[in-house]
Each structure stands twice: as structure tokens, then as C-alpha cells.
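Progress note, sequence design subtask.
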């Protein structure tokens, strides 16, 4: 297909400075909290970890929280706690970052990809149901863009087979599902603290759970499989210094520096989410009359925390490709992105025998979506620039 080049190529862009699609929001309070830890006796395995974990538990209404060095490490630990083993199967979505599937591989298990809902882009319960076998040992739904997945249906399917559900809520801290906080819905829930997420700890992740047995396993797994608790020893203690390695774990500990930053950021989470919702509303209203795009769909009962704002292009109504639109917006200094390439399209998965065509809806959606900037430290003027640039580019390719 022949495509037109934008008249604005080489002309004046909508913005003079580049606007990224996501960015952390750090203030002086955050910096002071980290500096205070730097001057303390503990840089890791200290009191800030417990404080941060307790604050997360309180916020989401979970009995336990266990902090990790990254969200990926947290998912790995959750698979371990759920009892995932070699040759098991773990069902997840291809419309996600690599870690949601890789965590199964780390345990020697096989990721099985369920297709997505064509409207919400979340994992389809119907597809999950069709893929369950005797080998299925966990289901990992992803709350894509911050909108909770269809948990009534997913949990019903899982409960009937006694399959643990590990909610990947990397996008959904602060979201709610039918009046309940994400973080207290499933057997285990993972939150990420990467800089583009709702709050940041530099890096880091956490698993929340209401089950004490999972909590104990998570604690051990993040610290080399060790325990210092006398009641857990399989042998006789040699003295106060004694510890036992009871399973093969990893060094997945979060530092006190990370925990202090995360704790400080958590105080501002509600404000951050309010800004995200405000800007998402501005986008929704602005693009209501742009017939060549599809705005995000929010299902009834779901209160998204708006990690991402994604437009779906009606390519059959445009003379340009998604790549043309992406590059044109970049030239306008709008830092767009695409979330996500279907996981099993990656060379590693292709070499492992996964084939394209597994999830037709996810593949079609991937070809048509584009992510717009959305983060709390944006201004209304920034949002208006994005809207102006999108309308400018879409208008060019629309006729």
C-alpha cells in the first residue's frame, strides 16, 4: 500500500521538547527519605522493608505482603509458592510484558497462552477454560493498562479445579474490581515499582496474599531458601547464629533504599491515580469525535488505575500504517509506545516451538494499538499537546 508522507515532516512540531510515554514523579520528600536511610545503619534487610510491606498490606487489604527486588522476581517467587514444577503448565496472556510468561519457564513449566477479549484486551475467561488440562498448575491473568481482568469468571474456573490464581497487577496498583481492592482478590497478587508504574522504588515488586503458607514460602524464596525461625528447623539449632537452607531460593531481597522510596511514594498514590484518571478523561473526551480510532473500553464494575492509555487505530480507514502514525507522532515530539508484542512472537519462544496464530485476537489487536503519554507529572498543556498531535496526524492519514 502506498502511503502519504506528512506535510509536517521537516516542519515545526507540535511540541518543542520530547514528552515520554511514562516517567517517575520524584519530589524532595522522596529524596529525604532515601537520604535518611543512607545515613542509617541499614541499607538492606532493615526496618524499612517491614514498614513498606505493612503499608502495602494496609492499602490493598491483604493479610501479608512480601517485597522483592523486582516485579519479575516477585512473579518467580509466586510460581514457586504456588507449587509450579517442571513440566507443569501455566496459563497466561500474550498481551503482556515477558515476565508474566517467563516466570513459568524459570520453574521448568510451560507457558500456555490464552487469547484476549477484543474490547478490554484482558485475558479471556472462555479461552482460559478451553486450555485447562491436568497439567495446569497456575493461572496468571494480567490487569492490562490498569483495568482488572474478569475475576468473577476467572476465579470460578480456577476454584473448580483448585488452581491458584496469581494476579499480575503490575499495571493496577490502586485499581478496584466490583468494590474490592486489587491485591486482595486472588491467591497472590504482584505489583511492580518500575519507574513508569504508579509508584516507584527505582525497581522492585511485591506479592500480596491472604494465605500464611504462601507468605512463608515467599519469605524463604527471596532469601536463598533460608530460615532462622526455630519452629521451622528440621534439625537441632547450634545456637543463636544458626540458620537452615531448606529449599533452593534466590537473592531477591529489596533494599531499604528501595523500600523507603516506595513507602514515601505510596503516600502520594491516590493523588497520582487521580491525575491519571483526569488525563484519561481528557483523552476520552477529545477522541470521542475521531472516527478513525477506538478509545479504551472500561467494563462495568472495574475501576482502572490507568497505567496506560491505548488507542486502537482503524487502519482500514487510514491511508497510513501504524508505523507511519507512530513515526509521525514521534516527529511531533510525542513519545508514543506499543504495549505489547505478543510474547510468543519473541525469538526465544519461536525457537521453543510456539507458532504465530495461537491467539488471533491478541495478534490483531497488537497490529493496531499505540500507547499515548500518561503520567502524573504531565501538565494539562502536555495532554493538550498530545491531543493536538494525534488529531493532526490522524487527520492527515484519514483523507
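Output:
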Amino acid at each position: 500500500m502506498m502511503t502519504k508522507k506528512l506535510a509536517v515532516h521537516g516542519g515545526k512540531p507540535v511540541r518543542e521538547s520530547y514528552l515520554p510515554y511514562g516517567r517517575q514523579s520524584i519530589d524532595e520528600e522522596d529524596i529525604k527519605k532515601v537520604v535518611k536511610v543512607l545515613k542509617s545503619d541499614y541499607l538492606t534487610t532493615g526496618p524499612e522493608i517491614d514498614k513498606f510491606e505493612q503499608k502495602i498490606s494496609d492499602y490493598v487489604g491483604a493479610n501479608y505482603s512480601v517485597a522483592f527486588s523486582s516485579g519479575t522476581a516477585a512473579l518467580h517467587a509466586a510460581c514457586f509458592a504456588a507449587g509450579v514444577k517442571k513440566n507443569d503448565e501455566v496459563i497466561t496472556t500474550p498481551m503482556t510484558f515477558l515476565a508474566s510468561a517467563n516466570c513459568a519457564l524459570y520453574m521448568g513449566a510451560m507457558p500456555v497462552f490464552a487469547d484476549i477479549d477484543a474490547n478490554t484486551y484482558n485475558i479471556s475467561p472462555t479461552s482460559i477454560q478451553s486450555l485447562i488440562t491436568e497439567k495446569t498448575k497456575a493461572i496468571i491473568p494480567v490487569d492490562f493498562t490498569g483495568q482488572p481482568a474478569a475475576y468473577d469468571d476467572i476465579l470460578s474456573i480456577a476454584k473448580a479445579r483448585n488452581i491458584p490464581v496469581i494476579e499480575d497487577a503490575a499495571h493496577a496498583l490502586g485499581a478496584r474490581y466490583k468494590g474490592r481492592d486489587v491485591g486482595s482478590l486472588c491467591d497472590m497478587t504482584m505489583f511492580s515499582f518500575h519507574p513508569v508504574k504508579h509508584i516507584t522504588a527505582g525497581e522492585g515488586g511485591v506479592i500480596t496474599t491472604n494465605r500464611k503458607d504462601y507468605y512463608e514460602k515467599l519469605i524463604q524464596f527471596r532469601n536463598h531458601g533460608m530460615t532462622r525461625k526455630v519452629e521451622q528447623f528440621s534439625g537441632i539449632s547450634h545456637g543463636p547464629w544458626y540458620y537452615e537452607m531448606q529449599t533452593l531460593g534466590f537473592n531477591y531481597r529489596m533494599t531499604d533504599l528501595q523500600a523507603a522510596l516506595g513507602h514515601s511514594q505510596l503516600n502520594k498514590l491516590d493523588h497520582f491515580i487521580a491525575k491519571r484518571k483526569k488525563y484519561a478523561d481528557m483523552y476520552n473526551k477529545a477522541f470521542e469525535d475521531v472516527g478513525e480510532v477506538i478509545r479504551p473500553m472500561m467494563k462495568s464494575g472495574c475501576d482502572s488505575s490507568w497505567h496506560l492509555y491505548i488507542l486502537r487505530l482503524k487502519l482500514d480507514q487510514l491511508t497510513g500504517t501504524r508505523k507511519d502514525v507512530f513515526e509521525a507522532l514521534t516527529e511531533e515530539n510525542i513519545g508514543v509506545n506499543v504495549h505489547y508484542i505478543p510474547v510468543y512472537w519473541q525469538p526465544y519462544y519461536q525457537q521453543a516451538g510456539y507458532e504465530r496464530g495461537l491467539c488471533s485476537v491478541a495478534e490483531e489487536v497488537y497490529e493496531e494499538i499505540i500507547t499515548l503519554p500518561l503520567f502524573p507529572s504531565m501538565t494539562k498543556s502536555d495532554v493538550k499537546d498530545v491531543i493536538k498531535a494525534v488529531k493532526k496526524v490522524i487527520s492527515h492519514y484519514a483523507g
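The chain has two domains: 28-266, 269-398. Work on this subtask will continue into the next period as scheduled.
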